[in-house]
Amino acid sequence: MEKRTGITMKQNPVTLVGKEIKVGDQAPDFTVLTTDMQPFSLKDVGDKVKIISVVPSLDTGVCEFQTIHFNEEAALLGDVAILTISVDLPFAQKRFCGAKGIDAVITLSDHRDLSFGLNYGFVIEELRLLSRGIVVLDQNNKVTYVEYVKEVTNHPDYEKAIEEVKKLI
């Protein structure tokens, strides 16, 4: 399995496991779980433009902000699928969404197989968490934007990702 460095968490170097995704790549499929414990894959979203918001855990401040921010953006973007993926258990994700009023973002759990994390190169080897980032896919699941946030505790570039989405819709 491919491994790479250059990412930190609280200024400590971490190792990312899995294939690094790049602009122009065809997005690999993955299988994660919905908040109702049902399998979910990329093809379940159909031919919409997609934002994949990747977070370590919804129960942290930056991850919470990132998820709420994209939930708010969903109303402005229209027919764009926004997925938030973490390794939080589906039960915790469901509780979080209910408590925070998350109703436009699809929260998905990669806890079981790390299918998304390994296929997209977001798994933090030392912690078995996903690193922070954003992936934008066009209607044909071609990667048009990707950000692996260099310091996991920092925010991603929301505006740059939204700008890319607006070019596609």
What does this structure look like?
The protein is an alpha+beta fold and 169 residues long. 27% of the residues lie in helices and 30% in strands. It has four helices and eleven strands; from the N terminus they run βββββαβαβαββββα. The protein has helices at 61-77, 90-100, 115-120, 158-168, and strands at 3-9, 12-17, 31-33, 39-41, 49-54, 80-86, 106-109, 123-124, 129-130, 133-137, 143-148. The strands form three sheets. The protein has a five-stranded mixed β-sheet with strand order 7-6-5-10-11. A hairpin with a 4-residue loop joins β8 and β9 (129-130). The radius of gyration is 14 Å and the shape is globular. The N and C termini lie far apart (35 Å). The mean pLDDT is 97.
Assembly category: single chain
Structural class: alpha+beta
The helix/strand order is EEEEEHEHEHEEEEH
Strand order across the biggest sheet?
A: 7-6-5-10-11
Number of strands: 11
* Secondary structure tally, helices: 4
The rounded distance between the terminal residues' Cα atoms is 35 Å
The helix fraction, in percent, is: 25-40%
Overall 3D form: globular
Spatial extent as radius of gyration: 14 Å
Arithmetic mean of pLDDT: 97
- As residue ranges, the low-confidence spans are none
Largest sheet: 5 strands, mixed
As a percent range, the share of strand residues is 25-35%
Observed structural traits:
169 residues; five-stranded mixed β-sheet; four-stranded antiparallel β-sheet
